[in-house]
Amino acid sequence: MVDIPEHLLLKTAEARAKALGISVEQALAEMRGEAEPTKIEKEPDVIEVTPIEVEVKETPAPAAAVKETPAPAAEKSNGQVPTEVDFAPETKVTQRLLTVVKAKPIQKPTSEPVDKVNTWPHLMLPEFISLMAMTAFLIFISAILQAPLLEEANPNITPNPAKAPWYFLGLQELLSYWDPQIAGVMIPLIIGVAAFMAIPYIDRNKENNPSKRKYAIMLWTFFLAGAGTLSLIGILFRGPGWNWTYPWIDGVWFDDLLDWVHFE
Amino acid sequence: MKNEKIKFKDRLKDISAGLGDSLKESTLWGSIFRPGSPFRKGYSDSPRNRSYVVMNNVLYHLHPVKVKRHGVRLSYTLCLGGLSFFTFIVLTITGIWLMFYFRPTEMAYVDIQSLQTSIAFGSLVRNMHRWAAHIMVLVVFLHMSRVFYHGAYKAPREFNWVIGVILLILTLLLSFTGYLLPWDQLAIWAVTVGGNMAGYTPVFGAQVKFALFAGLEATEATLLRFYVLHVLFLPFIIVIFMAIHFWRVRKDGGISGPL
Ligand code: HEM
Hints:
The structure holds two protein chains of two kinds.
Chain A: H1 6-20, H2 24-31, H3 72-78, E1 116-118, H4 119-122, H5 124-144, H6 169-175, H7 180-183, H8 186-202, H9 214-236, H10 247-250
Helix pairs in contact in A: 1-2, 6-9
Chain B: H1 2-13, H2 21-25, H3 27-32, H4 47-55, E1 66-68, H5 74-77, H6 80-99, H7 108-118, H8 122-149, H9 158-180, H10 185-199, H11 205-213, H12 220-251
Helix pairs in contact in B: 6-8, 7-8, 8-9, 9-10, 9-12, 10-11
């Protein structure tokens, strides 16, 4: 037999002794198999249950079925076999109302359940395909378009016009409208960047449906159109001295795409 | 159509069907691919295994096991955030390759020339690096517009937008510092224009320009400065901010929407 720790054995013996009205030593001895187990004289109280006529429905739910096997304790009591019923038919009131407990879960769901799919394969596969597509596209254009390499850098020969990289050309165009000595460059730039960062804190409209944020969408579209126009002007319509030129008459001054479109 | 679908599903089940069983049974193989990997022997396409593909994998650092159904529709994100990241990876790989052949000294121009003429794939890799840089600026900007049009910067995603703006600036700075490196007329004068603009800063103008150029004008000292920024400092910073950005996307409850 497994060794039961002494303190546990003692505790159990005490409980048994109390329940049967015997001494602890006796109980211990019984548990160790050294004495005959005490016969239980006192029968537990049995609550008499009046058998209730129950109409058995066609397909009764399992819980509603009348228990065929009576409790063994009840059997002994007075020969009569009580029927245990674990439900009450609606017609018969067998309980009284103590309190009404509102049906309320312990954990309160705070968000609606959302329709989700497995990342693998539903997200990772499209990702993988777009990765492959982009790599293929990149290799393709790199094979046919030569990146520009002009003459070696020479601080003494200033090209005219000297253009910034294309993504700054909108800015360069914008800055050409005011005298940088007076209006400055960094300060408007820093304010601009700060304004971009502040967008979520300025736009307090909680909606994200486009039809409910027309104003915001309009502003961004204006911004895109403006930035696009300024950039295109800077790229295509500015020549020597930052003067207005027409690409189809005067040619284009945009060396980034030097070997792509053969200007002049 | 239906048949096609089943066929495709069957393919998913057997990614590694072509590999020999003895290989897949080896201790080495089993130790590399964790349970749930489609490369393990006896992989079956079950919901449990679909979860394990992500969960029992380093990918768990990037992706949750499940994502919102509308978020995986290509038309929702257009994969723009993902493509920004992919272009960055491509740029890192091609960039490291270029570093083997490039010296940020008076030899820079010659190095680029010989890269194009006498090194295998030199021209292709240089072109890839250059065009990918342009594409990254464009894609990041488009991603930003997508986010704006979806109102995806709204609570609780406000701060991820701020991190996004920082990523945009870092992307532009990476591109700008790289622009100088070929040390040709295009490079030096584009950077000179940019640097001069910075020079118009009130009060500190001269200091800003000096810090940028490492001198009074674009010289080889500027080249070295931009090189270190371009290959080390800025990538280091942008990776940190990308990590925060991706982490926030998940912590803010995944992709926003549906609209
Ligand atoms: C290096 C640049 C960037 C990378 C690699 C990047 C990557 C990502 C990725 C992978 C996502 C997941 C959803 C998607 O693909 O659209 C995402 C979401 C997001 N990004 Fe970016 N991003 C970058 C720049 C930006 C910029 C410039 C902004 C805005 C100023 C921005 C703002 C956001 C926001 C707010 C989300 C959450 C969108 C949603 O929940 O629908 N990110 N980003």
